Amino acid sequence: MPTKNSERYAPHALALLRVIAALLFMQHGLQKLIKFPDAGHHPGPFELFTLAGVAGILETFGGLAILLGLFTRPVAFVLSGQMAVAYFMFHFANGIAKPMGFFPVVNGGDLAILFCFVFLYLSVAGSGSFSLDGKRARRGA
User: Fold this and answer.
1) Residue, of 45 and 76, whose pLDDT is higher
2) Does residue 117 contact residue 8 with C-beta atoms inside 8 Å?
3) Domain for residue 24, yes or no?
4) Do 55 and 86 form a contact (C-beta atoms < 8 A)?
5) Which residues, other chains included, contact 1 with Cβ-Cβ below 8 Å and sequence gap of 6+?
6) Mind giving me the DSSP string for 4-41?
7) Which has more pLDDT, 126 or 3?
8) How far apart, in whole angstroms, are the C-alpha atoms of residue 32 and residue 5?
9) pLDDT at position 42, please?
10) Burial class for 42, CB neighbours closer than 10 Å (0-12, 13-18, 19+)
């Protein structure tokens, strides 16, 4: 049941979720594109015109758009789909480089599932406060 405080702070909580998810997501893209931050176990950087390269572009620049709250709904929808594809193509089917089983915590797909549903939520809920989408809406753009 919503309370006066929960309704008042909901746009700020949504913005916090958006910003934190975007910052984490962008790190995965940057690892694929420029191997930064170097975690040691990631094989990047990848060629741009490979699946991993395209994923790096989507994760870096899509993450930046989500961070800024720019075109949040359509970008989040695309990124949600990307994470579903990543899970079923790379984690569920193969694990990380080899078959590892059904459970996401075992096959390394738990983050892909989490990002998929966070972005699906953002595609419905929007960007929250402190976003360029909100600024554009106030200007009537």
Assistant:
1) 76
2) no
3) yes
4) yes
5) none
6) HHHHHHHHHHHHHHHHHHHHHHHHHHHHHHH--S--SS
7) 126
8) 41
9) 66
10) middle
SS3 133: helix
Q: Among the residues of 2-130, which ranges form H helices?
A: 4-34, 51-57, 63-68, 72-86, 104-107, 110-125
pLDDT at residue number 96: 55
Q: Is residue 139 part of a domain?
A: no
Residue 2 belongs to a domain? no
Look-up of token digits 């620049």: 61
CA 28 to chain centre: 9
The reply to whether 138 falls in a domain is: no
**Angle 20-66-110 from CA coordinates, rounded to 5°:** 55
Number of domains in the chain: 1
Encoded tokens for 81? 């789909």
Residue 12 pLDDT = 94
Q: What is the pTM of this model?
A: 0.88
Comparing 63-72, 86-95, 121-130, the range with the smallest average pLDDT is 86-95
The amino acid at residue 141 is: A
